[in-house]
Prior knowledge:
Blueprint: H1 4-18, H2 21-24, H3 32-61, H4 63-68, H5 75-133
Helix pairs in contact: 1-5, 3-5
Amino acid sequence: MVREQNVKLMSKIAIYEKNKGRQEIPMNSYYKGDYVRIYSLKAVVHATIAFVLIAAIVIMYKLDYILTNILKVDYKQLAMYLLIIYVCFISVYWLASRIVYARRYEKARPNIIIYNHDLKKLREVSEKEVVKSRGGVVIHDDFIDF
């Protein structure tokens, strides 16, 4: 038997899963620290790739100057300069990504709690209906769920 309450609850769950749930539900499988670390590490890897590509583009742009002064350039000093720029770039990017992913997790957490509560409520209602359909007695056990 289709009940209006069940349909509303299932619709609410389906709308969440289709919209925000696509991004937020996978977060539920991680602790906050693990989620932030994993995605910050991914961001650092992507930033490293971006830095290498930007450096390659700059080298190709300045290739004429590099080839004319190939013997005059102090490569040790150039390498230190690039390393310092890389470390600064990655540090800023890593810190920004940690802040962004921590906020994203905190923002999604209340929605995930509501989603899990709705799923639990739907499961309980469907279990009661199964018991009723088999001729059993349903005992209402209402309590506060934290």
